[in-house]
Amino acid sequence: MYRIKESVNDEIVVENSRFIANFIPLKNLEAIKEHLSNIKEKYPKASHYCYAYIYDEYMKSSDDGEPSGTAGRPLLEFLMKQQLERTLLIVVRYFGGVKLGASNLLRTYVASSVAAFKKATLLKNYHCNLYQFEFDYNLLDIIKRFFKENDAIIKDISYSEKVILEVYLRASKIAEVIKLVNGKIAIVDQGEINLYLETN
Asked: Going from the N-terminus, what domains does the chain have, and what CATH number goes with each?
């Protein structure tokens, strides 16, 4: 699953109608009303404020007066296709005087979303555990190389009688670490965690 790092928007014009797509990261469900209100203030006198959101198990869409199924549902399906979570997508339309027809209208709402989505910085879910590793200094290089090759993230490192590392690592990799150093390592599992890291 993915989230967006920060709000982005873009605009396309079709048959004199302006379509302005806005992707907004959500901190909680209560923020949705506030974001909708802010968008309406930012784009006053628009014809429609169509939207969709996904927040954990909650999802909703609205056509806001457009023909049923031509705006809200396609926006929600776009969020689902991109595997986005905790994201609000609002597309503002200023009607240009020309009716587009249902199929063209649907395509245009999706096209405006695609344009804005291209500007977004994505954060990918990284489900892992936080571990504390303690080991002798002669193992440091081989362990750090293993972590680098296996997408581990070193949170902290300290040096005393032994090296102590705090590392975000997938639980499935622990057996490999132990095998790598022939069991000469102390490991404390500090629990599961979900990180969201920028995609390359």
From this structure: 2-120 (3.30.230.30), 125-198 (3.30.70.240)
